[in-house]
Each structure stands twice: as C-alpha cells, then as structure tokens.
C-alpha cells in the first residue's frame, strides 16, 4: 500500500453497536467502503448474503485461507469463523477510497501485522450493564450463546488500550460524528 492512511479497523465487544454505527456512517458518507466479512455462521433474521456477510461453509472458508484470500481471520466465541476478503480491500485502498474493516479483536491484532498503517479504533459501551442490556435486547442468541459472548466481551474490553483510539458509543449519532472527524470526511 502506498501513501495516505485510508484503512480503519473498527472493533469492540459484541453488542456494542459496531454494525449499527458503521451502517449509519456508510449511509451518511457513501464514499466510504465497508468491507463485507466472510463467516461460517448462519445468517440472523434479516441478514442478506453479500450485504451483511458472505455466508459460507467450512470447506469454502478453508479454501480462502489456503489461497491467501483473507487479510485476517479468526474463530469467534469459540464457534464460527470470520474473515476479511483480501482482494476487495486492496483494490479500494489502491484507489484511495477510505476503507473500514469492522472486525473482532483477534482480527484487529492480525491487521496490525498485515497493515500496520491502519488506524485502529475500539468502540466501547458506556457501561458493562448497558452492553448486557443491548445484547439481551437483540434477542438473537440462546442463553448459552449469550454467556459465551459476554465472556468474550469481558476479555475484549480489557484490551481497549491496544487501540489507537477508543470511542464510547453512548449514541450512534455522536459516535458517527467522532468517526467522521477521525477519518476526515
């Protein structure tokens, strides 16, 4: 990659609102490219293949790893794998398009090695209680999944200081304003 910084890693614990914030940013600034991750988990209600994620089976994911088709990948919550497709991201960056990678902590750590120039941004909840409320409010996880996600979230919260910037997601509008300022849109 050459020249200007245009890759931004957005990470944070489960249910902090990363997806909502990134979607709002993209809606108000359509020139920003948001990488669509690949995952082995099944779609949640309302998710569309190729829009929210590329939903693939384990064999397809294995082939992406073997062919160096992912910038990063990780197994999340001890269950499903997620990854960032390499080709689309590199094409957008080469064209000078501000690019957002919305990924988990493991992926953010890998991106620090593969793209050290990327700006790393951690989205934090206003409080632990609010994070739990948001996760419960989604109503998309079983009790076991929720417990697993909350345990992962505790571990992720303890790593916020690894990031270049921490933004507390009190409201989506305020968080988007801070991202717009940071990215320089």
> Overall mean pLDDT score?
90
- C-alpha Rg (nearest Å): 16 Å
Report the top-level CATH class. Answer: Alpha Beta
What is the overall number of helices? 7
Amino-to-carboxy terminus distance: 21 Å
Structural class computed from helices and strand pairing: alpha/beta
Question: What's the CATH architecture name?
Answer: 3-Layer(aba) Sandwich
Uncertain regions spanning at least 5 consecutive residues: none
Overall helicity: 40-55%
Portion in beta strands: 15-25%
CA-based shape: globular
User: What's the β-strand tally?
Assistant: 9
The biggest beta sheet, please?
A: 5 strands, parallel
In spatial order, strands of the major sheet run 2-7-1-8-9
SSE layout:
Elements: E1 7-11, H1 18-28, E2 33-34, E3 38-39, E4 54-55, H2 58-66, E5 70-76, E6 80-85, H3 86-94, E7 99-102, H4 105-114, E8 119-124, H5 128-138, H6 143-157, E9 165-168, H7 172-183
Parallel strand pairs: 1-7, 1-8, 2-7, 3-4, 8-9
Antiparallel strand pairs: 3-6, 5-6
Helix pairs in contact: 1-7
């Amino acid at each position: 990659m050459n020249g200007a910084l245009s890759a931004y890693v957005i990470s944070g614990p489960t249910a902090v609102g990363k997806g909502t914030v990134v979607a709002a940013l993209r809606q108000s600034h359509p020139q920003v490219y948001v990488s669509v991750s690949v995952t082995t988990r099944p779609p949640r209600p309302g998710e569309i293949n190729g829009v929210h994620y590329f939903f693939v089976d384990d064999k397809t994911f294995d082939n992406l790893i073997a062919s160096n088709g992912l910038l990063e990948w990780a197994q999340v919550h001890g269950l499903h794998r997620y990854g960032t497709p390499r080709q689309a991201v590199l094409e957008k960056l080469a064209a000078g398009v501000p690019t957002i990678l919305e990924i988990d902590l493991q992926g953010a750590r890998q991106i620090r090695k593969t793209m050290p120039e990327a700006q790393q941004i951690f989205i934090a909840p206003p409080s632990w209680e609010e994070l739990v409320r948001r996760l419960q409010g989604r109503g998309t996880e079983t009790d076991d999944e929720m417990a697993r996600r909350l345990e992962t979230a505790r571990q992720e919260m303890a790593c916020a200081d690894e990031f270049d910037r921490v933004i507390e997601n009190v409201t989506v509008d305020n968080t988007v304003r801070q991202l717009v300022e940071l990215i320089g849109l």
